[in-house]
Amino acid sequence: MPPTDQSLPHIEGLYRQYGGALLLFAISICGESSRAQDAVHQVFLKLIETDGIKNALDPKAYLFASVRNSLLNDQKSRQRHVPIESDRLWFTPPDRDHAAEENLRRALQSLPDDQRQVVVLHIWGELTFSQVAEILSISANTAASRYRYALTKLREAMLVKENSNA
Amino acid sequence: MPEPNDEQFEKYLKNFRPVDPEPLPVRTRKHAAGASSRSALAACAVACLAAVAVVVIVLPRNSQPTNDPTAAVPRDDARHDKIPTPALTRLALDDHAAFDQFMSDKFQTQFPSMQSAHSALRVLAKE
Fold this sequence. Notes:
Oligomer: heterodimer
Structural class of chain B: mainly alpha
Radius of gyration of chain A: 17 Å
Order of helices and strands of chain B: HEHHHHH
Shape of chain A: globular
Number of helices of chain B: 6
Number of strands of chain A: 1
């Protein structure tokens, strides 16, 4: 079904609102900014084409799940694992503190894939553990426990880096 | 740096805003389409103006009234007071003196001058 005049601004609004978090989530899965960008674009272009967002009960969770599915399908067809890029910015840091941005990026890169995805979804996607669980096809308890582990590791990694810089 | 608790650390992490993705290609296409339609519109406007200019400049010249026998004569010829044959015939019949005068003037303006000592006509006349 083609989009109506009302649905296109709605989809563009969702893109503006969640685009950054979706891109970060995509990078946390595939490791490549360009592929992540393509996946996010593909999802939104398909939404514009089909107006599929209308039927989604939870549009935000639907978007994150769509991006993940798009990337997983792509990864299956490629059959290879790509290491995460380390030279591209993932965040706009507060007070232009680019050293802190790099520190956070490296700490996130050091996390296992499943923990990194949970952290990104919960902190920057602002999703509940129930939503995270649904997107990643795990239980809410597993999502919460992965998050706690990830947060501890992240904090340690960032403190170690800050102390070594000091 | 003192070790922050989970809540403080989460708050700190949220200060980092994920980088925005590039604009959707569909938006770009719309802009491109808008730009191309604007240039097409501008081209049309220029073409219309050119057409109007042609109509305004060229048509009045071609549509001058033809009652006056001298009116249709091109400007270049008009400088030489060329009169169409019917008008000339009428002039010859109606006013013979004026016709003679006209032909004399015409002779002087349209034939090479014989005033020069080396003009071809003067040389031929001597022979």
